[in-house]
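ingest -> validate -> predict -> emit
validate: passed (alphabet ok, no gaps, 231 aa)
predict: started
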Amino acid sequence: MSKFFPIRLLERRQIAPSVLHLAFVRDDGEALDYTPGQFIQIHFSGEAVEFVASIVPGGAATALFQGMAAGDRLQASGPLGLFTLKPTDANRRYLLIATGTGVASYRSMLPQLDAMIRERGVEVIVVHGARIPAELLFADEFLAMVDKHPGKFRYLPCLSREEMVDAGAFAGAEPAHGYVQNRLADLAPSAEHDIAYMCGNPNMVDAVVAALKEHGLPMKDIRREKYISLK
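emit:
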């Protein structure tokens, strides 16, 4: 089991109707040996919960986070998980597919992806599923990458409840109505040059895995993380 360490809340803000963003710092003077895509566990009341920012009405973790003030401390462990970019990858393109808060994993990978685009010309496509435009988390940061790497970085929002996003607010995005798995055919996944990541709703992950396998991607090039809200 990972060793516990203290973390201190720096800032809490609501970035979408049902999502909190919490910034913590390790509070024992030690460095956090973290690889983008990993997660930490927060420990309270004798239980451990995977840290997610989704607001779950009546949820124990949600009540804890909403009741915290800057400077409050918790115990944590980790980092954990293998949902990370691999330095040995030699692919030409990454397909990064997410729903909801799952897109935060790809946000943490942006510095690595920026380096990969510059150093070996890799292409990156982020496909993010949400219900409404207000739930497109960190869209500004993905759009900044579109501007920085035209033709190499694409951002594809998929809205299940609304058909359009405001063109002015999301200039550079390629929005569509529907679900992320509906975009795959247009992207023409290829076993020759693609590695795919998917993070978020378990049903989405299963549907995308099945679709990618139909396109011929081997399981070694399909990397997944399922997010489940815990009350």
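The mean pLDDT is 81.
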